[in-house]
Design a protein that fits this description.
Helix content is 0%, strand content 42%. A 5-stranded antiparallel beta sheet has the order 1-12-11-10-7, with no helix packed on it. Strands 3-2-13 form a 3-stranded antiparallel beta sheet, with no helix packed on it. By secondary structure, it is mostly beta strands. The chain has no helices and 13 strands.
Length: 220
């Protein structure tokens, strides 16, 4: 398939949510579909034979210490800063392949990750074990997409604030990514981002550490 890259800039006014009339900057990038040598699979997910070993699904929890920084007039040289802590853990809320068994999203933090853009390994459950079928970044939407090589497309969403210039209003970027299964792993095939002025947004820096086995309770 011929690869396509589409970049579009759309100017919209009267934004809802951030109380701004600044334009929205939209970037749409489509990546080439990954070729696969996997044999054709019927358009169903339940009970799909998967490659690789079926292993115990990790039950992991991580502590995320967050520092929020926001600068605004009248004195941008003295930014307002707050700190808080949240936790992330293995998520078994989704049934990705529709077989009635809960699958898993297991945290695999990468450098620079926070709780809102965390990398997670996707495990499809088979009995008491699971097959790792890729890694995605961001919050996985519960509604799955079209079937590809036996598993549905997954869409993730990331919302992140930033204020690189303390003299300018902060901005909020919303990033949507689509991941498609190629018979072996999920690969990113589409990414779209929207950037808007957001006066209440802040820049967030995170430090992620593993919770001890005796400290696996959820944090606020």
């Amino acid at each position: 398939m011929t690869s396509r890259v589409q970049l579009a800039l759309v100017l919209l006014a009267n934004l809802v949510g951030c109380g701004s009339t600044e334009p929205v900057q939209v970037q749409d990038v489509r990546l080439p579909s990954a070729a696969t040598s996997a044999p054709p699979v019927a358009a169903t997910s339940a009970g799909l034979p998967l490659r690789g070993p079926c292993v115990p699904i990790p039950e992991l929890s991580f502590r995320v210490d967050r520092v929020h920084t926001q600068s605004s007039p009248p004195d941008p040289s003295q930014p307002f800063q707050t700190n808080n802590t949240v936790s992330v853990a293995t998520d078994r809320s989704l049934d990705i392949d529709g077989d009635g068994a809960r699958d898993a999203l297991v945290p695999e933090p990468a450098e620079g990750d926070c709780n809102f853009d965390l990398h997670r390994a996707v495990y499809v459950a088979r009995g008491d074990c699971g097959h790792k079928v890729g890694v995605v970044a961001g919050s996985v939407e519960p509604k799955t997409g079209p079937i590809s090589s036996g598993l549905p497309e997954l869409t993730t969403v990331v919302e992140v604030g930033a204020q690189p210039d303390p003299l300018q209003p902060a901005r909020r970027r919303t990033i949507k990514r689509t991941y498609r299964f190629d018979g072996a792993t999920y690969r990113k095939v589409h990414e779209q981002s929207e950037d808007v002025v957001c006066h209440h947004c802040s820049t967030v820096r995170c430090t992620i550490s593993t919770l001890a086995p005796d400290d696996q309770r959820p944090m606020p």
